[in-house]
């Protein structure tokens, strides 16, 4: 009897001795056995790497491309509520049945002599590519994981490659050398194909890597730009592959990083999409990215889990009314820079609820509380789970109070999975 999707996901956890094993040899061999690299997976492929902003940039590319009539597939990770979120076609999650068929194809190729061991993520990436290649797609947008150059997604040659931001994260795997991290992320660039740099502040190593490949560089602040408009919204100015200027006016403020939106538009232009103002405005006005500055009543949910993301949140949280309190509910994994995140948010948040996260990487709420207290913050409660922390805080909120729930995908996912009664 065929496994269910849940059974497949459980089985994949047992395939490899470690959860993260960066390198392309094993996954490339299985991909070749599956025929995934014999032809392009779509007419145009865009890959997105970076420390922060990958998910929102991918979502913006997807929605704008579909608003222009393109058939679009996406692969992203991790998911919040359902594994199916990782693989979508035209904005719809693929079915359990399609994913099961994909995992069966991966397993058949993996076990062909000699058998090859794959990590959970590698098997999932191959399954996603198998699902996408079955569809007649105009564009595929791929989120590259933490590894960049050695990430499983990088077995695909993208027509346009994006690096959003570079900051410290996953230090256990990537180290703390920003220049080296930049070189690893830039490993998604391809010779003589456009490289889009979605930040004004990137280590020189990113541009150097592109130049070594003779990849045309398009950097925010130099080759394309976004700027606020006097009345409302924002203005985008970019360039075509031939260097001709383009601009779009009166674009809606979507409550997400505008730099990421500008980067998405530049990448789409380089992928041969002729942007129209009407379709672009419509797409951006309706876009919601779950877990990214997502408001539910008095609560803002954001998966930010490193200091770079926390600084953005601190700058862009709307002010609370006079006499009201801006609360923070935080739960983090043990391998994240909790001190840096707390310090970044301390300019906006003094009153906290700490929550524990389960699993071998989970961090205890009381440890977070000690770190907050050491920086002068006030911890009012420690809870065993994110939902328990939310329930405790909800009954104590004033009508004008606001809450930022942050620190991890796991924190936000728990709150989304069990909506408040």
TrEMBL record:
It catalyses: (6S)-5,6,7,8-tetrahydrofolyl-(gamma-L-Glu)(n) + L-glutamate + ATP = (6S)-5,6,7,8-tetrahydrofolyl-(gamma-L-Glu)(n+1) + ADP + phosphate + H(+); (6R)-5,10-methylenetetrahydrofolyl-(gamma-L-Glu)(n) + L-glutamate + ATP = (6R)-5,10-methylenetetrahydrofolyl-(gamma-L-Glu)(n+1) + ADP + phosphate + H(+); 7,8-dihydropteroate + L-glutamate + ATP = 7,8-dihydrofolate + ADP + phosphate + H(+); 10-formyltetrahydrofolyl-(gamma-L-Glu)(n) + L-glutamate + ATP = 10-formyltetrahydrofolyl-(gamma-L-Glu)(n+1) + ADP + phosphate + H(+). The keyword Transport does not apply. GO terms for molecular function: dihydrofolate synthase activity; tetrahydrofolylpolyglutamate synthase activity. Residues 291-409 form the Mur ligase C-terminal domain. Residues 48-191 form the Mur ligase central domain. Its EC number is 6.3.2.12, 6.3.2.17. Transmembrane segments: none annotated. Pathway: Cofactor biosynthesis; tetrahydrofolate biosynthesis; 7,8-dihydrofolate from 2-amino-4-hydroxy-6-hydroxymethyl-7,8-dihydropteridine diphosphate and 4-aminobenzoate: step 2/2; Cofactor biosynthesis; tetrahydrofolylpolyglutamate biosynthesis. Keywords: ATP-binding, Folate biosynthesis, Ligase, Magnesium, Metal-binding, Nucleotide-binding. The keyword Metal-binding applies. It comes from the Bacteria. Belongs to the folylpolyglutamate synthase family. Functions in two distinct reactions of the de novo folate biosynthetic pathway. Catalyzes the addition of a glutamate residue to dihydropteroate (7,8-dihydropteroate or H2Pte) to form dihydrofolate (7,8-dihydrofolate monoglutamate or H2Pte-Glu). Also catalyzes successive additions of L-glutamate to tetrahydrofolate or 10-formyltetrahydrofolate or 5,10-methylenetetrahydrofolate, leading to folylpolyglutamate derivatives. This is Dihydrofolate synthase/folylpolyglutamate synthase. It comes from Vreelandella gomseomensis.
């Amino acid at each position: 009897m065929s496994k269910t999707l849940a059974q497949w996901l459980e089985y994949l956890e047992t395939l490899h001795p470690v959860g993260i094993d960066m390198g392309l040899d094993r996954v490339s061999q299985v991909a070749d056995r599956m025929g995934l690299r014999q032809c392009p997976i779509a007419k145009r492929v865009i890959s997105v790497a970076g420390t922060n902003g990958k998910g929102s940039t991918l979502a913006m590319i997807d929605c704008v491309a579909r608003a222009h009539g393109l058939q679009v597939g996406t692969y992203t990770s991790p998911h919040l509520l359902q594994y199916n979120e990782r693989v979508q076609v035209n904005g719809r999650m693929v079915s359990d049945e399609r994913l099961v068929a994909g995992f069966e194809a991966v397993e058949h190729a993996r076990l062909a002599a000699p058998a090859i061991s794959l990590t959970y993520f590698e098997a999932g990436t191959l399954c996603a590519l198998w699902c996408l290649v079955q569809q007649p797609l105009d564009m595929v947008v791929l989120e590259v994981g933490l590894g960049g150059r050695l990430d499983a997604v990088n077995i695909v040659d993208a027509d346009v490659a994006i690096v959003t931001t570079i900051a410290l994260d996953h230090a256990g795997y990537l180290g703390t050398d920003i220049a080296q991290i930049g070189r690893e992320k830039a490993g998604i660039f391809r010779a003589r194909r456009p490289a889009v740099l979605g930040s004004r502040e990137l280590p020189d190593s990113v541009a150097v890597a592109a130049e070594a490949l003779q990849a045309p560089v398009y950097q925010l602040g130099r080759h394309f730009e976004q700027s606020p408009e006097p009345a409302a919204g924002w203005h985008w100015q970019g360039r075509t592959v031939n260097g001709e200027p383009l601009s779009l006016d009166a674009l809606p403020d979507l409550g997400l990083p505008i730099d990421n939106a500008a980067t998405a538009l530049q990448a789409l232009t380089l992928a041969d999409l002729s942007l129209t103002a009407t379709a672009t405005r419509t797409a951006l006005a309706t876009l919601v990215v779950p877990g990214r500055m997502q408001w539910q009543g008095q609560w803002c949910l954001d998966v930010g889990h490193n200091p770079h993301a926390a600084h953005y949140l601190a700058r862009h949280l709307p002010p609370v009314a006079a006499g009201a309190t801006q609360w923070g509910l935080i739960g983090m994994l043990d391998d994240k820079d909790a001190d840096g995140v707390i310090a970044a948010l301390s300019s906006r948040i003094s009153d906290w609820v700490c929550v524990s996260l389960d699993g071998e990487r989970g961090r205890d709420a009381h440890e977070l509380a000690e770190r907050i207290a050491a920086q002068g913050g006030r911890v009012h409660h420690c809870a065993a789970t994110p939902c328990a922390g939310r329930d405790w805080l909800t009954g104590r909120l004033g009508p004008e109070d606001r809450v930022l729930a942050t620190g991890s995908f796991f924190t936000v996912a728990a709150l989304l999975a069990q909506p408040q009664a």
